[in-house]
């Protein structure tokens, strides 16, 4: 999972597989295939990003 900072937004990518309720929550932030954009003009939804990070970790294969 990667983060990048831009002049007007923060991007998070790739989008991990998520449940339907979480997919609904991230929908306003979708920007292209596999990328979320969080505008800096609004509060950053850290709790949402934390849940995305948890989904990303859960989707990774275990050895």
From TrEMBL:
SUPFAM superfamilies: YdhG-like. It comes from the Bacteria. This is YdhG-like domain-containing protein. The lineage of its organism: Bacteria, Bacillati, Actinomycetota, Actinomycetes, Propionibacteriales.
């Amino acid at each position: 999972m990667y983060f990048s900072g831009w002049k007007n937004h923060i991007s998070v990518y790739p989008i991990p597989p998520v449940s339907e309720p979480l997919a609904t929550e991230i929908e306003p932030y979708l920007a292209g295939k596999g990328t979320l954009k969080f505008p800096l003009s609004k509060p950053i939804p850290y709790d949402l990003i934390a849940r995305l990070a948890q989904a990303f970790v859960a989707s990774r294969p275990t050895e």
